[in-house]
Amino acid sequence: MKFGHFDDVNREYVIETPRTPYPWINYLGNEKFFSLISNTAGGYAFYTDARLRRLTRYRYNDVPLDNNGRYFFINDNGTVWNPGWKPMRVELDSYECRHGFGYSKIASSKNGVKADILYMIPNGDNAEIQKVTLTNTTSQKKDIALHSYIEWCLYNAHDDNTNFQRNFSIGEVEVLGSTIYHKTEYRERRNHFAFYHVNSKIDGFETDRETFLGLHNNYDHPDAVFADKSTNFVADGWSPVASHRINVSLNAGESKTFIFVLGYIENDNDKKWAAQAEQGLLQTNSAMRVINKDKAIALQNKYDTVEKVEKAFNTLKDFWTDMVGKYTLKTGDEKLDRMAVWNQYQCVVTYNFARSASYFESGIGRGIGFRDTSQDMLGVVHSMPQSRVRERLFDVASTQFEDGSAYHQFQPLTKRGNADVGSNFNDDPLWLILGVGGYIKETGDEQFLKEMVPFDNNEKNKATLYEHLKRSFRYITTHIGPHGLPLIGRADWNDCLNLNCFSTDPNDSFQTSTNKDGKNAESVMIAQMFVYVAPDYAAMCRMMGDEAEAKFAEEQAAQMAEQICKTGWDGDWYIRAYDDFGKKIGSKECEDGKIFIETQGFGSMAQIGADKGYPAKALDSVEKHLDTKYGIVILDPPYKDYHIELGEVSSYPPGYKENAGIFCHNNPWVIIGEVKTGRSAKAWEHYKKIAPSFLEDISEIHRLEPYVYAQMIAGKAARRHGEAKNSWLTGTAAWNFVALSQWICGVRPEYEGLRIEPRLPAHIKNAEITRKYRGVTYKIDITNNNPEGKVVLTSDSASVTGTLALAKDGTKEVSIKAVIG
Ligand code: GLC
Ligand code: GLC
Questions:
Q1: Is residue 670 left, alpha or beta, with left meaning phi > 0 and alpha meaning psi from -120 to 50?
Q2: Residues 395, 403: contact at Cβ < 8 Å?
Q3: Which atom of ligand 1 lies closest to the CA of 495?
Q4: Atom of ligand 2 nearest to the CA of 652
Q5: DSSP H stretches of helix in 516-567
């Protein structure tokens, strides 16, 4: 069943009912100011860091779901309704929500009043703009009232949810004209504030939640809206909110537009205060000093007309056209072609937010993951400005320790490693090599390797980025266990494979408690990753003129591959790991967890034991044991019991998360492995099982947004097989984009040029790809006669060596014909 449709021309997903199977959300903002917005206008805004600088309040895990947002209430002679349906949930005569790239639109109507709302965050400004147009579609004059509503968060979202003894006394606002200023804590250590403004005269306002709603009311009965008059009360502690009331008179057929601006301002310390209070200013306590509003007023004026907002909106649309236009795909397979667009959008959002803020991540819990962001980068390096990717990689490398290990997470605002989570996830160092390699392949920016980067953010202790990579690589070679494989530490990619945890205490965190000395448990996956990234590392060594290290890397990788064949192969698939007792994990010998996906994916991507046919065997085993109609599960059979020697993986109910859920993140590893093993038809089968646009028709089962990937789909052992959770922020986005663009479509950046080896499914006979690469637009015209056939490239404007193409000097646009088979 579908709940909407794709509008491919406008690049929007059009939701046709507010009753989606779960809130279907979108993200606004692409620089510093961000908002999450659901199809019923729920969500919240923050500046840079969803934990430390939260601007509006959200209620998690609340009933009904998705409470609090930026709500508009319309009081039409006693009938009160919301254009986004929530929170009143009054039946609408029509409803539509369009999620576009960086903006959302809600259009609905009730009793002859039509509301059209555009929500967006323009580039370059720290503000969410809400353009509200009300139209009277009847033949009678209408007098209605429009009430806006947001609730302020007291900046630190964690404190805001916990520290009520303080919070209930600190809320402060100022009101001036049509603007409500959120002044809480501005006095002492903060030099920032937020405001909610509208570009028209208002007829009243509310700034205190209790006054707005009524102490005993829910959101569906706001007293102030029903009373149709305002108290104009200036909040004094408790929960500050911002609500404007505008009485709107509409003649038959008439429309009026109001522009609301939710803004964030920072003032220099010496410019925090106004010289004197403005005329008409309201605040709780007249003894208090008054905010310097110069910057706020300038920002308000920037968006005070429809023309200005429309101009910013067009700029935003152009920005996204450019962003997702660096890679375009036309195959005639509608579902596939739209994935090429939406997948890139998700990659950018995921890159911006890491795993911090979604409807499944509170924005309070997690900073930016070292391994996560290094992978996310692979999905945006072609589309984002080079400087942003470079800066992030620099920040990541700066949280590395001298011995090559790294903080597992860091905070985006401070860029410091998160000491609570700590270090010792032994895969982390290798992701940095993968990330930097991916960046240089795309940009050719070899100079980056020479940049001086601190260890543990210590400015006095720096080394070249190249030296950081060396420490990463050496970290693995110096942390080898009894079977000649890398020690796993707290976990490898699989956060739940906690082989040194041995916890019996429910208060322990699986990830951060370590009860073993870590000298035994080994990871086959880290071993495979090591082999997989070694060629990149060796290439970068050579860029630095370090032939000896390049040779060393190659020898080490060859040895490691041999070792995996000896101790990491189980007969029909790659073993997953060895536990602290030296027992195999992911082997026929195990009762549960006989086979895991990760090592089949990385093993086949790295083509380990190819001469013995291991990759193909491993992939056949994936098909036999792990594949389902909704995607490939992470392991099988699921663990029925808690295994102290395995940790969190055995704590989840069968079929969920790392215990045999379909963990979408590593499905693309299998897809890539299939292509590399010369079995592209199978790659395609796997691809379309989890690609969201292909799941649109089963939205009642899948439940989450049909335009973005979710981290997990319940596996075959789960009662709710096929049901997804944790959409948006997942490594799935980047890896599937890599699988699609670089392996299925076969256009991948290499150090020396653009490799073109399409392995499209047989039903696609012709395809057109454009790919911007190092400032040149490559137009690739593909004829697919036989998917596994020989690829022959011809071009007048590029030099072609086998399947590698590089624009001739001075050429800005290159045309290439690729004939397959
Ligand atoms: C989550 C984590 C990621 C980890 C994965 C598997 O997606 O963010 O770092 O690799 O789970 O446990
Ligand atoms: C990762 C895993 C999740 C686990 C969490 C623990 O996000 O995906 O399953 O619970 O790490 O921090």
A1: alpha
A2: no
A3: 12
A4: 9
A5: 524-543, 547-567
pTM surpassing 0.90? yes
Q: pLDDT digit string (tens) for 730-747? A: 999 999 999 999 999 999
How many A from CA of 204 to the centre of ligand 1? 48
CA of 157 relative to ligand 2 center, distance in Å? 21
CB of 116 sitting under 6 A from ligand 2: no
Give the pLDDT band of residue 414 (cuts 50, 70, 90): confident
Query: Residue 560: is its pLDDT beyond 90?
Result: yes
Q: Is the peptide bond before 637 cis (omega within 30 degrees of 0)?
A: yes
Amino acid identity of residue 697, one-letter, is: D
Q: Among 436, 453, 461, which Cα is nearest to 543's?
A: 436
Q: Which residues contact 302 (CB under 8 A, 6 or more apart)?
A: 125, 308
Reported residue count of the chain is: 821
For the question of residue 294 being annotated catalytic, the response is no
Residues facing 522 on adjacent strands = 487, 578
* Residue 435 vs residues 373, 393, 441, 654, 734: alpha-carbon distances, Å: 8, 7, 10, 33, 12
d(CA 496, CA 362): 20
Q: Mean pLDDT of all residues in the chain?
A: 97
Among the atoms of ligand 2, which is closest to the Cα of residue 657? 9
Tokens representing 306 are: 């429809």
DSSP structure class, residue 742? I
Residue with tokens 């082989």: 499
> Ligand 2: which residue has its CA nearest to atom 1?
495
Phi, psi of 781 (to 5 degrees): -110, 120
Tokens of 511: 């990830």
Give all strands of the β-sheet with 577-578 in edge-to-edge order. 522-523, 577-578, 584-585
pLDDT in tens, 43-96: 999 999 999 999 999 999 999 999 999 999 999 999 999 999 999 999 999 999
Which pLDDT tens digit goes with each residue over 366-402?
A: 888 999 999 999 999 999 999 999 999 999 999 999 9
The fraction of the chain above a pLDDT of 90, given in percent, is 96
413 pLDDT more than 90? no
Helix-helix angle 524-543:547-567, to 10 degrees: 160
The reply to whether ligand 2 has any atom less than 6 angstroms from the CB of 421 is no
Distance 160 CA to ligand 2 centre (A): 24
495 lines ligand 1 (CB under 6 A): yes
Is pLDDT above 90 for 419? no
pLDDT of residue 728: 98
Ligand nearest to the CA of 365: 2
Cα dist from 333 to 129, 337, 338, 636, 713, whole Å: 36, 6, 9, 33, 24
β-strands 255-266, 192-198: how paired? antiparallel
User: Helix H segments across 121-263?
Assistant: 157-162, 164-170, 209-213, 223-227
pLDDT at 421 over 90: no
CA distances from 711 to 54, 427, 491 (A): 25, 20, 18
Residue keyed to tokens 């490939």: 632
| Ligand 2 geometric centre to CA of 706 (Å) | 23
In the three-class reduction of DSSP (H, G, I as helix; E, B as strand; rest coil), residue 261 is classed as strand
In this predicted structure, the answer to whether residue 180 has a pLDDT above a threshold of 90 is yes
Cα gap 656→650, rounded to integer Å: 10
